[in-house]
Amino acid sequence: MKQVLWFRRDLRINDSAILANAKDEVLPIFIFDKNILDKFSKDDKRVTFIYKSVLQLKEDLKEIGLDLAIFYSTPIEIFETLKNQGFDSILCSIDFDNYAKKRDEEINKIIPMQTFTDSFITHPNNCLKKDNTPYKVFTPYYKSLEFIWESESLVLFERNKNLKKIEFDYDFIPTLEDMGFNEQKLPEFLEKSADELINEFSLKISEYQEGRDFFYKNATSNLAVHLRFGLISPRELFNKIKKMRAIKSQKDFYIRELFWREFYNYILFHFPKSEFENLNDIKVNWNKDETIFQKWCEGNTGVPLIDAAMRYFNLTGTMHNRLRMIVSSYLTKNLLIDWKKGEEYFASKLLDYEASSNIGSWQWAASTGADAVPYFRVFNPYLQSAKFDKEAVFIKSVIPELKDVNAKLIHSENGVQSNIFLDYPKQLVSIEYSRNRAIEEFKRANNEKY
Ligand SMILES: Cc1cc2nc3c(=O)[nH]c(=O)nc-3n(C[C@H](O)[C@H](O)[C@H](O)COP(=O)(O)OP(=O)(O)OC[C@H]3O[C@@H](n4cnc5c(N)ncnc54)[C@H](O)[C@@H]3O)c2cc1C
Hints:
450 residues, alpha/beta, Rossmann fold, Serine Threonine Protein Phosphatase 5, Tetratricopeptide repeat, DNA Cyclobutane Dipyrimidine Photolyase, subunit A, domain 3, six-stranded parallel β-sheet, 21 helices, globular, binds flavin-adenine dinucleotide, Cryptochrome/DNA_photolyase_1
């Protein structure tokens, strides 16, 4: 048997389903997939992060007597070549998004694939209601998994220590430039390993629940990118959280967040149409004004908090969870622009971009999703900044022209614009008018559904 171990979004050797289930002679590989990379801009930060992580995986595999063959091609081309070289089985971690599903169907026809649930704690098929249909609401879904989140630890995969490295050309390593990319500066937290971030988080978990919404603080774990590319498995993270010295309610609160990640993966698996359509089937008359959308993307809406969040995002590829909630509410409600446009914009830049979490969260914000915020609840960005960034620390750090402006002015509608010495964009829409317009439109769309 000649097995290919195809690493994709599980770039680690600890708690690895494929290294546990592999046998005999193996060829670990990673493919820089041209189908995916060709769509990215050459300054995409994620490629720099993945590139570094793949090189680290190669070193880690060498330490356990294996190696990593790296390709820059399309999966179909690679597996057709490997089939001709006598490889007869592929082991990999399951991936649920649309491109991945189609890709895997094709590859399976070339060499049979064995897939494992390795990027999530649960397989979406293992949790259904009594009538065998999937949950659509988070809380009952989460409660039904109590036997998992109440356990003290989850079983991890043990690596098969008898694997043998197949002779192969392991020397080829394309450079980022060979693949059309320039090395990018990454946010500081991405220079750290998952273990370093977990250690740092262990010092602040006691204040997680209270602190996590204050976006000027660094109160969250910053682990989403590492989880996305499988540098830490969610099971191992779960176990490490359970072992931290903190009161149970704080640890439980964090673990509940990990299950939002599970839930959105579950929703995308059971309702794949949610990638393209409003999951609750309502038909909203979205505003198609491209200029307004571009102003949101650039951070030129005239609302200081929205502008700071978007400008920071454009610079760093990251955005705090509460800010994501506020800018997505503003785009889909106040500007009445289709959530799919915001989802796509986030997908083009977000370092922790995960199709399921992004789609699910955007549908949540737009009140079109499975377990969505009620449509009459619209975030007021001024009240949000007053509550979660009282001194406007975050806003001032991103928008230097507001450095000397009184925070109270920043938190009031048209406050900044009232200062004639400041060159700041006018508001695109009045908050109250646009809120009422959104509520009316969503009321109509919901009524028409029935
Ligand atoms: C519009 C919008 C889009 C989003 N897009 C993504 C995305 O593409 N990828 C992504 O990983 N998260 C997404 N999120 C969820 C959340 O914003 C990020 O997971 C979080 O900001 C990452 O920071 P952290 O690791 O410090 O989070 P922590 O607060 O430390 O949370 C720990 C982990 O729990 C998970 N998590 C926390 N909150 C959520 C949530 N609401 N939904 C799903 N998982 C969650 C993440 O894996 C996170 O790393 C989105 C949220 C919104 C509102």
